Amino acid sequence: MRIIEILLAASFLAVLVRLVHGPSQWDRVLAYNAASNRLIAVLSVIAIMSRREFYLDMVIVYAAVSFLGVLIVTRFMERGELHR
After folding, report:
1. Helices in 22-81 by DSSP H: which ranges?
2. Is 24 left (phi over 0), alpha (psi -120 to 50) or beta?
3. Which pLDDT value is given to residue 61?
4. What b/e readout covers 50-64, taking b as 16+ CB neighbours within 10 angstroms?
5. Quick count: other Cβ atoms within 10 Å of Cβ 78?
6. 64 domain residue, yes or no
7. 32, 43, 56, 59: which has the fewest Cβ within 10 Å?
């Protein structure tokens, strides 16, 4: 399990670099989505290791909110209303 945690942390840090230094807004949105996916994976691993179903409920709620957030931001970016 320790190897999985290290790999998830390394990939999360790589995505955070893209989130901060992304050349365009679209790259930053994709990096946010990728970071959210990594966080969902980390929370899932924590839920499995601690054997608590409550964390899996948190994962489902966070995944839904993250997905809706990405949809809203991309919708504003398509219309050009984000930069007003």
Report:
1. 25-50, 53-79
2. beta
3. 94
4. eeeeebeeebeeebe
5. 9
6. yes
7. 56
Domain hosting 42: range is 2-79
- Integer distance in angstroms from the first to the last C-alpha of the chain? 46
In the chain, how many domains are there? Answer: 1
Helices 53-79 and 25-50, packing angle to 10 deg: 170
84 part of a folded domain: no
| Residue range 38-66: mean pLDDT, rounded | 90
The answer to whether residues 11 and 52 touch, using CB atoms and an 8 Å cutoff, is no
1 or 22, which is more confident: 22
Residue 23 falls inside a structural domain: yes
Instruction: Quote the tokens at residue 76.
Output: 């504003």
What's phi and psi for 82, nearest 5 deg? Answer: -75, -25
DSSP state of 22: -
Is residue 21 in some structural domain?
yes
